[in-house]
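Now for a concrete sample entry.
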Amino acid sequence: MATFAKIGLNSQIINVINVEDASCLDADNNFDENIGAEFLQELHKWPAANFKYANQNMKNGVLYDGTEQAIDQSQAFRKHGAELGGTFDSVRNAFLPKQPYASWSFNYTTWFWEPPTERPADVVDGVPRIVVWNEDTTSWDIS
């Protein structure tokens, strides 16, 4: 099963669609993203250029097989799997996860959203604390 992201205005991911592998194969039985996108164009009446293959086993540019890093990294691209509300960065040819809070910025080195201030420790002097982001104050609440 191949997964494609349907890209809407402002590069927003508006749908994540599973497609049978057979609908994405070329004459030599090799996977071809363009064939899958053309199949979806016919089915959804949406431009093929707005469908991007999304390997849903990607995290931070690394391909996983279950919970373990996959030995074969040949399909490792686009940094993350696609998710509703996320975006597709066409310049970097990568999926960005949904922004958790308006004040957070995306770090293109780590490929994750980061808060404006570093998260405090969950444990201090052996005592666990609850640390939660407060978007209203753009700071961490600690209890």
